[in-house]
């Protein structure tokens, strides 16, 4: 197969690219604008492979997309390109509207135009796989409730609202134009190559630097954590095996309070990085509670029964094993960390957690 992957230099996208190049015989065209969170260093393991190629292209550029489709002739599209950080969507929602809504529209139209040029088996086998988030569902009230594929959408932030919009566009292009789509909504991902604005890498790197570990509110927010390489396997399974029009929730079966995640990282660092910065007795001493963000959802949790029953996928990592691998990876890849911590990123962190 020839697979066009948007956002393949991002956190989840790069994991998908690595998985496909390392575990299949498929070809990949990685289409990425390379914004602040896109990092080609995350693809060094595969970027010399003859089955991999890269194009620095904005998915909002329809003319460029048409050329890529014409030249590459993909059998499938995996759409991961998105602005994805809730905090950034609150302070600057325009980029989220542009990329997540307008960009998805342009990609859908380019895909539809290309698909209509195909015939026979190539046309019937084509897939457009849209990768989305469980945040489109809003948050859960009860402690036992779970997100189902049929859960009504109730997004809380500009980010989740923009992803909900893109989900609706994808489903509409299937129903109206017949574009053969599949759609997935995942829980919080973590693992290697995660951009350090997100909770887990931020806590790891701040702790190692002796900086405060910012926790929103009282840290009681609950998330279902999914190891990114488990997610990459699930996405490939859905793209290659799911029936057209199906939606799948992908979760890690690992519900954790944010404060417990932070404390678990501190405990692992006590073991794996015992030589602390000067003046630090314990990593947990760095925990600092900051003002909660507006509209912060309290609990996300996914029921991943459908993907287990239909496609025989279950996560391989528990939160304990996955978190240990993640902390160790950051300890072993300080060069990667230094290279992604640009001045722009540092300025954003200072502004975001000014009251830490």
Characterization of the model:
This protein is α/β, with parallel strands linked by helices. The chain has a domain of 244 residues: Rossmann fold (3-Layer(aba) Sandwich). 44% of the residues lie in helices and 16% in strands. It is built from 13 helices and twelve strands. The strands form three sheets. It has a seven-stranded parallel sheet with strand order 3-2-1-4-5-6-10, with helices on both faces. A three-stranded mixed sheet has the order 7-9-11. Helix 1 packs across helix 8, helix 7 packs across helix 9 and helix 9 packs across helix 11. The radius of gyration is 20 Å and the shape is globular. The N and C termini lie far apart (49 Å).
* CATH topology annotation of the domain at 2-194 and 226-254 and 295-316: Rossmann fold
CATH C-level class of the domain at 2-194 and 226-254 and 295-316 is Alpha Beta
Distance between the amino and carboxyl termini = 49 Å
Percent helix range: 40-55%
Radius of gyration: 20 Å
Secondary-structure element order, as H and E? EHEEHEHHHEHEEHEEHEEHEHHHH
DSSP summary: helix tally: 13
Query: Do you know the CATH architecture of the domain at 2-194 and 226-254 and 295-316?
Result: 3-Layer(aba) Sandwich
């Amino acid at each position: 197969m020839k697979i066009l992957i948007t956002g393949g230099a991002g956190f989840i996208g790069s994991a998908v690219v690595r998985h496909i190049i390392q575990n299949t015989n498929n070809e990949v065209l990685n289409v990425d604008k390379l914004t602040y969170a896109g990092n080609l260093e995350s693809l060094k393991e595969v970027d010399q492979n003859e089955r991999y190629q890269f194009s620095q292209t904005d998915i909002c550029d329809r003319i460029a997309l048409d050329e890529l489709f014409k030249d590459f002739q993909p059998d499938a599209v995996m759409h991961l390109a998105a602005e994805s950080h809730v905090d950034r969507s609150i302070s600057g929602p325009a980029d989220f509207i542009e990329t997540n809504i307008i960009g998805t529209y342009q990609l859908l139209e380019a895909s539809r135009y290309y698909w209509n040029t195909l015939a026979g088996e190539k046309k019937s086998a084509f897939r457009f796989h849209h990768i989305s988030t469980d945040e489109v569902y809003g948050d859960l009230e009860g402690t036992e409730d779970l997100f189902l594929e049929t859960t009504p959408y109730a997004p809380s932030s500009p980010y989740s609202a923009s992803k909900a919009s893109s989900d609706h566009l994808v489903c509409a292009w299937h129903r109206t134009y017949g574009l053969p789509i599949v759609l997935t909504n995942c829980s919080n991902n973590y693992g290697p190559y995660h951009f350090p604005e997100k909770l887990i890498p931020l806590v790891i790197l701040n702790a190692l630097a002796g900086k405060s570990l910012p926790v929103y509110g009282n840290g009681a927010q609950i998330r279902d954590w999914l190891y990114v390489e488990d997610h990459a396997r699930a996405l490939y399974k859905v793209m290659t095996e799911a029936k057209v029009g199906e939606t799948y929730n992908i979760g890690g079966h690992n519900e954790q309070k944010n404060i417990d995640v932070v404390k678990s990282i501190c405990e692992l660092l006590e073991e794996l990085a015992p030589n602390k910065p000067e003046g630090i007795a314990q990593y947990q001493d760095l925990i600092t509670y900051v003002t909660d963000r507006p509209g912060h959802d309290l609990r996300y949790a996914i029921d991943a029964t459908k993907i287990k029953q239909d496609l025989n996928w279950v996560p391989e990592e528990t939160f304990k094993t996955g978190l240990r691998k993640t902390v160790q990876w950051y300890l072993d890849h300080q060069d990667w960390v230094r290279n992604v911590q640009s001045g722009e990123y540092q300025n954003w962190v200072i502004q975001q957690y000014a009251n830490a």
